[in-house]
Protein: FAD-binding FR-type domain-containing protein
Amino acid sequence: MTIPSGSGRASGKAPGRLSKTLIAPFIKRATVMAIDDVTDGFRLVTLEGAALRGFAWMPGQKIQIAMGSAFVARTYTPIEWDIALGRTRFLGYRHGEGPGSIWLAGVRVGDECDLFGPRNSLAVNDMIGRVAVFGDETSIGLGHALARHDAARSVACHFEVGNAESGKRVVDRLGMVDTRLFARRDDDAHLGALEATLSSLVASDASFVVTGKAGTIQRLRHELKRLGVSANRVATKAYWAPGKTGLD
Structure:
């Protein structure tokens, strides 16, 4: 995921000398090997490096890429990881003029970057049966990773998007077949349509992964609770909220 400007996950102030020494062993160096401009605002970025080889990765984990001398970091969800080659790929969503959007717009093939991770972010790998993913533009990569990693598992995705045409280009490019897009409205009327899909999924004993905007997550969690879904069938992660920083 990439977080909209003004609401993402920044690591804060630049670290002192001691902090840099403590952090250094956890930093991985990678090179940008490919960039695919899927459509307006969305870029598929491929990273590769020796430090990315030889460890286990699971869908739902995150990486954090350091940006600039102020040691600001932004968080992304890898959609795949080749541990033999040391290569990973993520779908970045550019919105606004925050550090993540500026980096995503300006990054070029051959650039190097420092990253942390992968680290756990969502407890999704113990879920059994059908999985229903709800989110927005920042959640599409997660939905793809879950569906791609386990072809035998049914993964149904539901995303609220600002531009339905661009959203369709992205999910088509990733080959995501069981995906519904809901055009975002200023009055949030589209959320009623999202909620209306929950009942049939609950009846099919699906588990739920809900990410993206904090307000949408809160509303869907409330409806799932009303429908009697147990907490162990729901995993949530707020990626952003208007005017908020430090989420994650």
Notes: The chain has a mean pLDDT of 87. The chain has two domains: 17-119, 131-240. The two ends are 11 Å apart (CA to CA).
